[in-house]
Write a structure and sequence with these properties.
The chain has 111 residues and is of the alpha+beta class. It contains three helices and four strands.
Length: 111
Amino acid sequence: QALQDRLLALSIKNNVKMNRLRSKKTSRVLYIRKVISQKKRNLILNRDNYTCRYCGIALHDKNAEIDHVIPVSLGGDNEDNNLVTCCWICNKKKGVLTSELAGMPLREVPA
């Protein structure tokens, strides 16, 4: 609960429009995510050549995901240098941690 309050305070402090996903059993916020436009998604996928920046595996459009290097919950934004292409396995493994805390360094830092 304290983490959820902190996340909500960060979103209010940053004055950012965010989607809140709520649990069906309780009204608690599960996590907060920023929406990435399709145009920006395509830009990031093309910049990263449809390759996971964490493990280096080649991806197809349908299984490629966009990850925040600095998570939204820690104040990350939707700037190009904070977004990378990744596979769903790495995205799930990294979770809401920074790549350093998750022990998953980027193979190439976004420009």
